[in-house]
Amino acid sequence: MQEVWFFLQLIVQGLAIGSVYGLVALGFVLIYKASSVINFAQGELLMVGAYVSLALMTKLQFPFWAGFLVTMVISALLALSIERFILRPMIGEPVISIIMVTIGLALVLKAVVAVFFGTQIMVFPEIFPQTPVWIGEIVVSQVYIYTFIASMALFVIFALFFKYSRLGVAMRATANSNQVAQSMGISVKRIFAISWCVAAIVSAIGGILIGNINGVNITLATVGLKVFPVVILGGLDSIPGAVLGGLIIGVLENLSGGYLDHFFGGGVKEVAPFVILVIILMIKPYGLFGTEEIERV
């Protein structure tokens, strides 16, 4: 019976972390749907958001809500600058060139953070209580529960935004067809910029949530790499797929760490998402909900 409770505990923790992965993957998918750009700097945007929020709350003594709002504004401004001055001039260039630009951007952001904040782990001010609670025989820190609830609430907010707001409908139209959106009077460049802003904001929120669990250092950027298996599993152009893929990868990652680490001496948890990625690409290259592209020659 103890094994069953241990299994359930791993599932609960995996769902909490997976919900954050899904949140970050949402930004990844939005950028890809709007501009067909694969953003390899998504993890670095998450890291920057976590550090900015941490600095505001610890060094400038902002209360959490004020630090959170200022972090969202700074993240949006950073994303606007990246889109306007780095990526917009690349329109029409080969896809590989744009991918290399995002990789270079990731390295620059990581280097800047290391210069200003160093590489040591920094403890985030307590946002959610860390006190464990008992659910049956499962012991779960409250931070995991609140993280899951916060992520799910944000998913609902974004779903309502995309379905009912004029801007959300414009973003969906642009994602479906740039030419059709332009013919309807939608500014595609404006939508591209907004997509980057939303991606940076959800990444910053993800950074704050994960930072509150594990602390903050430059290794937070690796979450961006873990998100890649998430979007491949769910489908590069699928928003529901990003949510479901995040939950699945989070659970599988936690289970592999819980059951296999002691056989291999640790580290399985870090490798598991990429093993899953290889398997997915072999079986279902377009993911669970991705749009299959058929080329006729």
Describe what this molecule looks like in 3D.
By secondary structure, the chain is mainly alpha-helical. It has one domain (2-221). Helices cover 74% and strands 3% of the residues. Helix 1 packs antiparallel against helix 8 (188-214) and helix 2 (42-58) packs antiparallel against helix 3 (64-87). The model has no long low-confidence stretch (mean pLDDT 84).
How many domains make up the coordinates?
A: 1
Q: Any idea what the radius of gyration is?
A: 19 Å
**Arrangement of strands in the largest sheet:** 1-2
The dominant shape is globular
Strand content: under 5%
Low-confidence stretches: none
Number of strands: 2
What structural class do helix, strand and pairing data support?
A: mainly alpha
Give the N-to-C terminal Cα separation. Answer: 58 Å
**Mean pLDDT, all residues:** 84
Largest sheet: 2 strands, antiparallel
Written as H for each helix and E for each strand, in order along the chain, the element string is HHHHEEHHHHHHH
